[in-house]
UniProtKB/TrEMBL annotation:
The keyword Nucleotide-binding applies. One of its GO terms (molecular function) is ATP hydrolysis activity. This is Cobaltochelatase subunit CobS. PANTHER family: MIDASIN, MIDASIN-RELATED. Coiled coil: none annotated. GO terms for biological process: ribosomal large subunit assembly. Keywords: ATP-binding, Nucleotide-binding. GO terms for cellular component: preribosome, large subunit precursor.
Length: 326
């Protein structure tokens, strides 16, 4: 990774101006952008409460953990806030193959002036600590427990990081920030939906200053986001189609909450459904390919009933449906 050109945020900007949120404080914004600053999505819809929690992390150096079901846009929410602040941001997915050496660093053999020498290569944690960057641990509850203790100290505000192999103690850069996302709240795979998640040590959970919950968006906001992602449906007739699709998604979520379904339609899948409808010209076929085929066979009848209830058409009979707008 390259070095960052930033030193400190250049100015303070009102939250109302940047995010259209009714709050009486200002947030720091870097004057320049570099390759580590995420691209801003003009169609992104910010959740006010979650946005304020993330901004508290940026402005007051709080450790912020976002929890929520899959597809709610937890990591994207942090990145989009960072994009508005021109704040460099690095995202690390904590799958089961991430090791302590990946996070801390390791000795590597390099060729220098024709000779092989051993040189320490920093991992992502010390690299980020030395720089004005927001480090996001994605899927925090999927990390191996022995690996997660690596970050125990830096979860504390201004906590220093010790490189034992190098006899170094790293003091975090004043503009280093730490965030994480998780599907659970550290309790593991309680409902059977998130295989691979771990129970998080409660002493470590206690070190997160702010834990915010991100739910699925209200219907109108979700419709607007899907229309933004698939502009072909950004008209009144397209609104009707997307509104019906969102109604199906809401039924799957209600069915999941009631224990009738073992899966649900996330906003990510909903967008894929709209995109596939544009490709195939048929909402029913796109529904099968985007969501129905992911469901348990024993539950597909109920999911088809949800479709029929919203579209007023049997799913099996709607294969040739061609809406006038398509």
């Amino acid at each position: 990774m390259t070095d960052l050109i930033h030193e400190h945020p250049g100015r303070l900007v009102s939250v109302r101006e940047l995010f259209d949120i009714d709050a009486d404080f200002k947030v720091p914004v870097f004057a320049q952008r570099d390759e580590h600053v995420p691209e801003a999505d003009p169609t992104y819809c910010f959740n006010p409460d979650v946005t304020l929690a993330i901004l508290a992390g940026f402005t007051r150096n709080r450790r912020v953990l976002l929890q929520g079901l899959h597809g709610t846009g937890k990591s994207t929410h942090i990145e989009q806030v960072a994009a508005r602040l021109n704040w460099p941001c690095v995202r690390v997915n904590l799958d089961g193959h991430i090791s302590r050496l990946d996070l801390v660093g390791k000795d590597t053999i390099v060729l220098e002036e024709g000779k092989q020498i051993t040189r320490f290569q920093e991992g992502i944690v010390p690299w980020a600590l030395r720089r004005p960057v927001a480090l996001i641990f994605d899927e925090f509850d999927a990390g191996r427990p022995d690996v997660m203790f690596v970050i125990q100290r830096i979860l504390e505000q201004d906590g220093k990081f010790t490189l034992l192999d190098q006899n170094q103690v790293i003091t975090p850069h004043p503009d280093f920030r730490l965030f994480a996302t998780a599907n659970t709240v550290g309790l593991g795979n309680v409902n059977g939906l998130y295989h691979g998640t771990q129970q998080v040590n409660q002493a470590q959970m206690d070190r997160w200053n702010i834990v915010a919950k991100l739910d699925y968006l209200p219907r109108e906001d979700e419709i607007r986001i899907v229309q933004g992602k698939v502009p072909r449906y950004a008209d009144p007739r397209g609104y009707q189609l997307i509104s019906t699709m969102v109604a199906v998604a809401e039924l799957t979520r209600a069915g999941f909450a009631a224990g009738d379904l073992s899966t649900l339609m996330s906003p990510r899948t909903l967008i894929a459904w709209a995109e596939n409808t544009e490709i195939f010209g048929d909402p029913a076929r796109a529904f099968r390919l985007s969501f129905l085929n992911k469901c348990d066979e024993a539950e597909r009848g109920l999911v088809a009933e949800y479709y029929q209830r919203c579209f007023d058409q049997e799913l099996d009979e709607s294969r040739s449906l061609q809406l006038a707008m398509i």
